[in-house]
Every structure is written in C-alpha cells, then in structure tokens.
Amino acid sequence: MSSLQPTFSSKSSSNFNELQWVIQIRKTLEAELEDENEIPVSIFNVPKTLLATDPESYTPQLVAIGPYHYWRPELYEMERYKVAAAKRTQKQLQTLKFQHLVDQLTRFEPRIRACYHKYLEFNGETLGWMMAIDASFFLEILQVYAVQEGKTLTRVSSRMAHLVDYAGRKSAHHTILRDFVMLENQIPLFVLRKVLEFQFPTLECADDMLLSMLMGLCKELSPFKMKDEDLPKIQVSTCCHLLDFLYQLVTPKLEAGPSEITEEEDSKGTPHKEKSSANSNYVKQFLDEILISGPVKVIFKLPWTILSNLPGFAILKQPLQSLFSSEDKEAVKPEDEKSSNGISKPPLIEEITVPSVSDLAKSGVKFLPVSSVSSISFDAKTCSFYLPSTSLDGNTEVILRNLVAYEASTASGPLVFTRYTELMNGIIDTEEDAKLLREKGIILNRLKSDEEVANLYNGMSKSIRLTKVPFMDKAIEDANKYYNGRWKVKLRRFMKTYVFGSWPILALLAAILLLLLMTLQAFCSVYTCSRIFNISTTT
Questions:
Q1: Fewer CB within 10 Å, N- or C-terminus of the chain?
Q2: Could you give the CA distance from residue 153 to residue 251 in angstroms, rounded to a whole number?
C-alpha cells in the first residue's frame, strides 16, 4: 500500500491515511457502478510547462476556492470571511439549518470528486462542508454583479464591505476576482446551483439568477468587450465552473467543414457563374500546361542557367533568385498540405511567424477593431487586418494565462484561444507595436505604459502544443503573403541579407571594380587612350 503513496498523496507521505484511501476508493467504485453517466474531469492542475513560466498567475494570492489550495496557511486569513458568508446563507435558508445544506452536498460527493483531476484526501463530510462554505462566499461576491445586471439582491454585509464594492474600486476586490478565475481555484457550478436552489422556489429561478451573476462577472473579466447581441447563448447547466463559462463566452466554437458547405450552396445558387468559371479554369489549365511544359521550361531557363554558371556570376544566383522570384518562401505556408492518409499535418513552428504591427503598418496595412476572436481576418483587397478589441488591466494577464491553461487541459480539438495569444505575441514585439494598436482602438490600455502591453504578450510565448485554427491561420497566411509580396519589403530584405549583411558580395564587387581598372590601365599602357577617346592632353 505504501507504494501507492507518491501517486495518490497530495501532501507529505507522513500525512497519508491509508485506511481513508481504501474507504474512498471503495466508495468511488461503488458510486461509479451505480451511476452510468460518466462525469468528465473539468478542474485540472496547471500543466508544468505553463506553471514554470509565471507561477503567481496560477496560484491564489488571497482566497482559496475548492480543495487544491485549501490548506495553505497564507490563505487562512480569508476563512473568517467565508464563515461570515456561510452565516449569511444560513439566514437566507430560513427554516433550514446550514447542516442540511452540507448534508445535501455530501450526497453529491462522488460527483464532486469526479470533477477534480487531483486525488482528494478528504472524507465526504469534510468535502461537503468545504463546498458549502466556499459556495456561500463565492455567491456573496457574485451578487454584486447580479445587481449590475438589474437583479435585486440584499446589500453586501458590513463585514465584507472592505473587500468588495459595487464600483469595484477596492484592491482586494480585484485580487479576489483574479483568484476566482484561476484553473486550480474552481468550484463545480452545480454546487452553486444547489445552494441557490434552497433560496429560490424553483431550479429555473435559481439558474436564472446564477446566469445573471455569471454574465455580469464575466463581462467584467472578459478581455473582449463584446456587444450584448454578440454574446453567445450559454446554458448554466452545460458549464462546469466559472472559468469554463468565461471560456465559452469568449472562444468561438469551430464547425467542421464550413467551406465545403458554402461552396456547394454557392454552386447551386449560381449555375451560370459555375459554368463561366469552369470555362475560364479550362483555359487557365490549358495555358498552364503549355507554359510549364518541359520544353518551354528549358527554353526559358537556358539563358539563366548559362549565365549563372559563368565565373563570378554563380555567387549572384541566390540573391537574384530571392529578389525576382514570384513567390517568397516565407509567404508560402503548408496550410492545405495533407498526409497520404488524408489527415491534416500539425502546423510547423515557422507557421506562427508573422510580421510585427510596425512592419505591416509601414507596408500599408490598416488595423481595424472587431468585437470577437471569431472575426479575426485579413482583407488583401483593402489591406485591412481585423483584430478583436481587447481591454487590458491588472487582471488580464492572469485571465489570459488561465484560459490558455484550461483550453490546453480540456480541449481535444483546435486550441482557438491559444492560437489567438500566439498571433498577438507574433505581431506585438515592441512598445511601438502596442502603441499603434492602442491608437487604432484595438487595445484599450489600462496598464501603466505601452511597454507593459508588449511585455504581457511577449511573456505568453509558451504553449502546450501547436494547433491549426483555419480562420486564424488563413489571416496569418494572407498577411504574410501580402507583406512578403511587396517590392519594398523584398528590396529591403535583399539589401539586408545580401548587401549589408554579407561581406562576400561586397568583396566580389570590389574585386570586379579593381579588375576593370587594372584592365583599363593595361589597355592604356599599350594603346594611346587619349587618342582613342579624343582626350586632349595639352594644357
């Protein structure tokens, strides 16, 4: 049994209770046999690769919600405020005692444990009390946002007044919100629903109140200030916890194969266009077959092949090819490549590369704000890059990092939100980039400086795995294609790579010039240059 200690114990081996572990495993197996509906894990430990980059962004600093950080001594100070919130909940229960609420939550012990990825070394009664007290405190904070959404609730207790307020001016208020969105600091949403169910006549009324509170809080926390009509319709019953609710609010759900459906609909609605485009495709294909046929290729490449093999010109071959090639290698991305079995290949590291905001702006790109991540696009015709309007404050980095950590832990498909942070990390390199986006209304900066904005995004360079997000990858590909296709960019890159950054080309040019001068001198020593060029030597 002791061999199981490192695997299942979350504390030191001396505190591991073997008997309690056996009892808990037996109860878990019996509960799973009775309940056929498997409950997915939704509250995870932060992946170590992300935790190592910035531990404070994933570790609660003021209040622990749930079992992961409950026994940390530095967080005990908030226990008295939790107990005060529990007393307030007991008053709202009227005829019922708080113990009755604890007993009801204890009945859901297997379901609560199933939500957590980590093994919990508490007995059922301890877990029930923990959930009841934490849920009371959580709802005490949430009611502030129900008031903002137009719901009528009792005022915040005087004991909690210095922690939270309706205006959100207290520093402790922002610290609590920051702790609330941390991945390891979540409480199952069905626990909050159960507590509210005792305070409202029906479960529908409780869900309506909880939805109002969560929506108000997430509007405050969301880095994207979306309009009410753009907000997705979310059912409280389908969300696992607060962070999951926020994730569903800000992250679009990708549908499989929308391009094929669109093309079929367009082709059915416009048969004449399909016919004309088919004819033009036949002509284009015919010309392509002629122009790229073997003999024609040889005829066009023969002069260049002969010239490039001449002494002294071989070194110029690569620079001239890079300058005059119709496609830049960096602009071509294998977005549509598939393996032999038809499965899309994972994106390469180079695919994240995108010009900075400053470079794109210098090449004529305009930046325009949109309301959500799903609207990210690049319009080559108008040279416009559409990016979501983002509000940045002291809590934003914690929110972004924990959304990325949650997505990495739970998403089996494309990491949409992670790809967005990679895009912003790619286009924002310096303070000047952040300033340009702020001036265009894409970044609403409530931090101290534009430099802090650049540091925020540049610090989020670590991700769990690379992924493909079609609409976002297309925007990156189109931006790269536009930028790399500009003659000004090609010339600047040519000069930087093969002139200023390469001494062999300069040495070659100097040698050629010296050779020409020596040839001219030798020629003039044999023949009279003044007579040939009609130059008068008399003074």
A1: C
A2: 30
From the list 406, 398, 465, the residue with the least C-alpha distance to 117 is 406
Segment 316-340, tens digit of pLDDT: 555 555 555 544 444 434 444 444 4
DSSP state of 229: G
Rounded to whole angstroms, the Cα distance separating 321 from 316 reads 9
The C-alpha atoms of residue 478 and residue 484 are separated, in whole angstroms, by: 10
Residue 334 CA to residue 480 CA, distance in Å, equals 13
Cα–Cα distance between 206 and 506 in angstroms, integer?
A: 77
- Cα–Cα distance between 292 and 364 in angstroms, integer? 33
- C-alpha 67/C-alpha 118 separation (Å) is 9
Q: What is the DSSP string of 373-390?
A: GGG-EEETTTTEEEEE-E
Name which of 46-50, 203-207, 274-278, 519-523 the model is least confident about: 274-278
In this predicted structure, the answer to whether residue 74 has a pLDDT above a threshold of 60 is yes
DSSP 116: B
Kind of pairing between the strands at 377-379 and 443-445: unpaired
DSSP 512: H
Could you tell me if 480 and 355 are in contact, meaning their C-beta atoms sit under 8 angstroms apart? yes
What are φ and ψ of residue 336, in 5° steps? -100, 5
Lowest mean pLDDT among 53-67, 395-409, 462-476: 462-476
In the prediction, which pLDDT does 413 show? 82
User: Can you spell out the DSSP letters for 50-89?
Assistant: HHTT-GGGTS-SS---SSTTTT-GGGGGGHHHHHHHHHHH
Q: Round to whole Å and give the CA distance between 37 and 33.
A: 10
User: Who's near 392: CB < 8 A, 6+ residues apart?
Assistant: 223, 443, 444, 445, 446, 447, 453, 456
Residue 204 neighbours by CB distance under 10 Å: 9
Q: Which long-range contacts (CB under 8 A, 24 or more apart) does 526-532 make?
A: none
List, for residues 148-203, the tens digit of each pLDDT value: 555 555 556 666 666 776 666 678 888 999 999 999 999 999 999 999 998 888 88
**Neighbouring-strand partners of residue 379:** 384
Taking the C-alpha atoms of residue 344 and residue 341, their distance in angstroms, rounded to an integer, is: 9
| Residues linked to residue 387 through DSSP beta bridges, in sequence order | 369
Place of tokens 């000069």: 495
Which residue has tokens 């010239």? 307
263-294 as b/e: b if 16+ CB within 10 A? eeeeeeeeeeeeeeeeeeeeeeeeeeeeeeee
Predicted local distance difference test score (pLDDT) of residue 460 = 84
Segment 508-514 shows an average pLDDT of 86
Burial of 458 by CB count in 10 Å (0-12 exposed, 13-18 middle, 19+ buried)?
middle
